Amino acid sequence: MPFPIAKDYPPMEAQSATVLPTGPDWQYEPKWDGFRCLAFRDGSEVDLQSKAGKPLTRYFPELASEIQKLKAQKCLLDGEIVIPFEGALSFDQLLMRIHPSSSRVAKLSHETPCVFIVFDLLVDADGKSLIKSTLDDRRKALEKFAARNFKSGGMIRLSPVTLELDIASKWFHMGVALDGVVAKRRDLDYQSGNRSGMEKIKKMRTADCVVGGFRYLEKKPLVGSLLLGLYNEEGTLDHVGFSSSISAKDRPALTRKLKKLIKPPGFTGKAPGGPSRWSTKRSTEWEPLDGSLVAEVQFDHFTGGRFRHGTKLLRWRPDKSPKRCTQEQVKREDRSALDLL
Length: 341
Hints:
By secondary structure, the chain is α+β, with helices and mostly antiparallel strands. Helix content is 18%, strand content 30%. Strands 12, 13, 14, 15, 16 and 19 form a six-stranded antiparallel sheet that branches. Strands 4-3-5-8-9 form a five-stranded mixed sheet.
């Protein structure tokens, strides 16, 4: 019997919101800090697919192997791949998996095995598509499927859900152990490729950073990006990322202000790196500052000693002491979000 859903099937997505929707029509789930994944099982064949439809199977061989061990010979699971590391979920460890070397991926799969947190069932063990069923019905089917197929504490786990707003609020305020909360309409069928009936409420993660230096724009003598620093446990200032979210109208005045503060060394710990294959000589040049400026920035992830993406400049903080801008602000709490499972 052919598999009822094509392998390039786009998953349901969420629209961003600022508050949790309320009422009996909604259920709440943790928003996991990982890679969204559709896991197809059709007999001996297993395919892991990213949200963008890209293949993930070769990067997580341990998960593919575990899915092959399920009692169900057919299924389509919707969930999130995460990697527990040092008491938290490590997005940096996930990024390390996307590597061209099979031997490197195999090594990491043994050293830091992933966990697949499942929150929806789209094809059941009988090979029946559930995408036209309501979320309520799919959840009931998923719980039965999990009871028959998932091992307690194993690599494949059932994501918790709640109908209680108080519990969802507690999940949201779990430090940085979770990425936020997702709310889903219980009475809707699976909205493939759409953002209706599902809302995500992400935390605004912010940090106060010392501006240890800046770079000019490529072709203009105006500030292009701020080089951000945080003090480490040894008391030295490490370069941890950058912010280029400076409006065009603010660049001239900010450039004049920064020029008055130029003073080496800028960073007393880890300094900005040198040229790379993606950079030019001009783009790696930077001016050190005296370390007196503090900026509050918004960020998505802080792993491996730096912000993983560019940050958004929120405001200047003249009221903040630069010495209080430490890496304690971005440390993950000791417990893992997996404690919820």
